[in-house]
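Amino Acid Chain and Its Fold in Token Form
===========================================
Purpose: to set a sequence beside its fold so the mapping can be learned.
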Amino acid sequence: MDIEFGELEHTQPVVQLRPDRNKHYAVVACGSPDENELAIFVDVDVMRDMEAHALDDTSVELGGVLLGGQYTDEEGRPFVLVTDSLRAEHYESTKGSFKFTHETWEKITRERELFPAELQMVGWYHTHPDWGVFLSHMDMFICDHFFNKPLDVALVIDPCRGDRGWFQWTGDPNERVRRTGGFYLTASRFRANELQRYTQILEGKLDMARETRFPIGDAPYPAPIINVGDRGGSWQSLAVMGMLTAQFLLLGLLAWKLLTPQPVMVTGAQREADRLAAQQAILNEVIGKLDVAPDGLVDELTETRARAEELSTDKLAQQAYLRELQQQTAELGSERDDLVSDRDRWRTSHEQLESKLDDQKLRIAALTKELRALQGIDDETLSDATDEAKSTGGLSRTWWIVISVAAAVVLAGALAAISVRADREKRQDGEEQPIDPSAFEADNDT
């Protein structure tokens, strides 16, 4: 290949704090990284993008370059930090090969100018769809000529088999490039739970379909999930998956309710007629297949069914009539109780009236005695009058006349006494007159 990527930059690694010792980051090991190997830290969003790129087209090989930094820690051990990636364009690829072209490199160079200067190329990645994870002779050619710094790395992804591997330079002539046992995924400390789930997906412990944030093609990433609190454990992952499952079930139920056609509202009579017609059609079909079925069996069954339904209807009507009679009986019982109450009330009132009548009779007898004393009526006549009053329940017409005459006499005497007293008082006011004893006696008699 006559492609030249330009002058390669060989700079001394800068001392920096490793992400797994930096409280700002959440770091999860993917695979089994060895302490004696080159530590490779990859941002989880960058890994997502490369995995999505690998799934775009599995009929040919795809690739791109890795951006980040190459550093050493306080103990002098080197490590690589991958914080971004650029997809290669205008490349040449087949089912088993991938080649950078001049246009590819020019495009990458222009895009790199838009990034900060400290963000350098630290390696490259490409895919082996259904070929496995390894570096072919063409891959080694690219590594030897374009990514040959001691800390440069290479990533191979097999999207069909769900496998991936990182390769580093060893400095050993017999084994110049070796696949690492694993690598580290990094993210903000607030995304620790999400990082755990995605690591399990890459290791095959969870299905890729459960990763709702995994991008398809060039689809944009959803908003990151922020978890405030500790880094969590397996129980939190189970709780999150349970909540997601419940949400999916709820959405499915709503969709089923919305998409299911509503039944057409029909009347009860029409529904019953349709049901009977369907049953009769089924009976006709079943009985028609019987060789020994007597003629007219379906009609007889239908008639029997109709009689049974008629009897059932009559029974329902009788039950309704019985309920109506029970209701009327209850109403009559209530009216009877009201009449008994009114009767008791009237009986009490009648007894009170009789008591008052007896009192009036006694008063009449007393008045009769007084009248006899005033008119000189003998006791025998008074007794007869009293007995007659008691037997007839009142005074006879004769007695009413006598009483009226006596009352008139008493009233006349009272008026005369008042007139005499008024004259006497008048004479006393005008001049003193000797007192007339007869007038005094008349007044006393009155």
Remarks:
- DSSP finds ten helices and twelve strands in the chain.
